[in-house]
Task: inverse folding
């Protein structure tokens, strides 16, 4: 088996391990009302890339930790991400009908169940961190704090509020970057940095990983904007055309300009990783992921 095939096999094994552990950590029938449990499992276990948990695992491994040590933390980040998707898709928010190739949870069940599932999943993430036997008490507190910060008033919640209330005020690229960082980048940063911290990486390495996560988040969102403008619901697995009439990197820079901005963020992120040895596991994974997303765009 060549090195590339072995690496791809490793990535698939890690992703499958995340899926198995998520199924174990998700609420089971009988632990809460059946309809709520079904909805949570529908949202959390739907097929997905598991981008954030994969970053946690690969970053932890990159800096010398066993991947199993970071697995529950990785799953907690996927729970936060799934929670944010449920809430973002609500009729009062983005009013989306399709997510990961399936009807959104408020369409498959109902809006009240979706709200309860989203809030429940967010709280389950904190419970998973609090109970993680692989982490010291200090690390549990730090990672819980990183999650809280990435969700709260300088993260996902602030970004969604800005998207709802301030969208007509977004006129330039720095404003768009701020919105995209809050809605996407902060959780990616936290997932990657948590993996580095679990491995005992240096402060310089944690900072470099954070820079990489920030840049990857901005590139990820620009790629999403390109898919929204040019892709199809079938290839994206979610609604497209949602940004029509909104200011995005694509509307500001045009398609080619947006692609150039995305590539610049990816290059800057790689430069940050190069400053601490290149992080080939992390860089290789993200490079492959973006190659697939660029094809969809």
Result:
């Amino acid at each position: 088996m060549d090195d590339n095939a072995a690496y791809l096999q490793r990535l698939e094994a890690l992703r499958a391990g995340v899926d198995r552990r998520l199924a174990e950590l998700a609420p089971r029938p009988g632990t809460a009302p059946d309809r709520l449990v079904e909805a949570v499992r529908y949202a959390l276990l739907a097929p997905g890339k598991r981008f954030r948990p994969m970053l946690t695992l690969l970053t932890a491994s990159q800096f010398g930790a066993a991947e199993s040590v970071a697995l529950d933390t990785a799953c907690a980040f996927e729970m936060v991400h799934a929670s944010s998707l449920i809430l973002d898709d609500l009729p009062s928010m983005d009013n989306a009908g399709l997510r990961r190739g399936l009807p959104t949870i408020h369409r498959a069940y109902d809006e009240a169940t979706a709200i309860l599932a989203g809030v429940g999943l967010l709280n389950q993430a904190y419970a998973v961190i609090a109970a993680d036997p692989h982490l010291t008490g200090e690390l549990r507190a730090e990672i819980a704090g990183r999650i809280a910060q990435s969700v709260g008033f300088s993260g996902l919640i602030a970004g969604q509020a800005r998207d709802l209330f301030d969208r007509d005020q977004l006129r330039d690229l720095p404003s768009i970057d701020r919105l995209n960082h809050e809605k996407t980048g902060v959780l990616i940063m936290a997932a990657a940095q948590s993996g580095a911290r679990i491995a005992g990486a240096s402060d310089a390495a944690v900072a470099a990983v954070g820079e990489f996560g920030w840049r990857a988040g901005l590139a990820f969102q620009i790629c999403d904007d390109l898919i929204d403008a040019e892709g199809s619901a079938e290839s994206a697995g979610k609604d497209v055309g949602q940004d029509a009439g909104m200011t995005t990197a694509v509307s500001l820079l045009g398609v080619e300009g947006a692609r150039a901005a995305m590539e610049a963020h990816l290059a800057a992120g790689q430069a940050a990783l190069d400053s601490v040895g290149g992080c080939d596991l992390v860089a290789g994974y993200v490079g492959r992921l973006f190659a697939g997303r660029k094809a969809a765009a």
